[in-house]
From TrEMBL:
Naturally occurring in which organism (per UniProt): Keratinibaculum paraultunense
Protein's name according to its UniProt entry: Acetate kinase
Catalytic activity: acetate + ATP = acetyl phosphate + ADP
Subcellular location: Cytoplasm
CDD domains: ASKHA_NBD_AcK_PK
Chain's role: Catalyzes the formation of acetyl phosphate from acetate and ATP. Can also catalyze the reverse reaction.
Similarity comment: Belongs to the acetokinase family.
Gene3D superfamilies for this protein: 3.30.420.40
Gene assigned in the entry: ackA
Amino acid sequence: MNILVINCGSSSLKYQLINMNNEEVIAKGLVERIGMEGSVVKHRTTGKEEVLIEEPMKDHKKALELVLNALVDSNYGAIKSMDEIGAVGHRVVHGGEKFANSVLIDDEVMEALNECIDLAPLHNPPNIMGIEACKALMPNTPMVGVFDTAFHQTIPMANYIYPLPYELYEKYGIRKYGFHGTSHKYVSLKAAEILNKDIEKINVITCHLGNGASVCAIQGGKSVDTSMGFTPLEGLAMGTRSGNIDPAIIPFIMEKENLTVDEVNELLNKKSGVLGISGISSDFRDLEEAAAEGHERAQLALDVFCNRVKKYIGAYVTMMCHVDALVFTAGIGENSVFVRKKICDGLECIGIEIDEELNDIRGKEAIVSKDTSPVAILVIPTNEELMIARDTLEIINK
């Protein structure tokens, strides 16, 4: 069976068509600038050259129409007809407390997704637009929603409740939800497979380190805590997000800088993190290069980022008492030799010992811990699309 995986942003759309008989990607692509001038589909069928389809796209429905046409094109397509797509798996950022697992999408699910918009006003609306567009174009094809937050619904209440008046949780659902769940789930399962261990019998700490970054404690295959919270702003210092700060700083800045709520929200989400500290970039490649040339604030930004990750690892080791594996994934986790080394330095006291020679790899699966390390350290490229496809297949088979 072929499953189409869709990941919609506000003006972009990523997709993969995966043959679930062998879990191979047979086509993939990216749509950019939906609803804007210069909109384009970048499509590649495995074994063929990439093609660019430049055509106006007023909305996600038009974008998906072009994607589906590309998939069945006689010259650069991957399938002969739409009948070869058995199901569609949609990435949905926020499922609130309503969804602890992936679900078959029906009218009741759509209603619940709309109710979650307040919790993810930037992410859920385009996710919903993608689903509605697919339903209009493929009305007889089953659709499955796979939620970034679902994996974290196993977190105990003592770990997800905030020390605020309890009525705010009851009224507005203010609690830790966590994100990157699909990635954390995939790499933890992959780590168990690599180590030839039963996921239900091991404890894993996964570090999804990209422009958005989070750490997750996984006990027996279940998330028991994670660094992101009510929104993806909590936790680590990130590319442009502040992560954890003293809450009193916010009204202080608003008063001193005469900022509105929207302006301070933009400052915390888009102008802070390593960009804010360094003053030069949110790209860790730029920061590493600048630090190597003596740029003090670039080095400071890297130090802050790595120290925050290290704190969460230490906290999760003590919380779970014993850890079998530490996993690095996503853009920085998979590719930055420097960041992995800096995070692990000093963690020997809790059984985490990195091997510098083994660690000198980028973008591929590897064990990078010393033979003497009680905790296995792994680099595992994430594959959220495959995890979405697997969940989709499991749901429709039921």
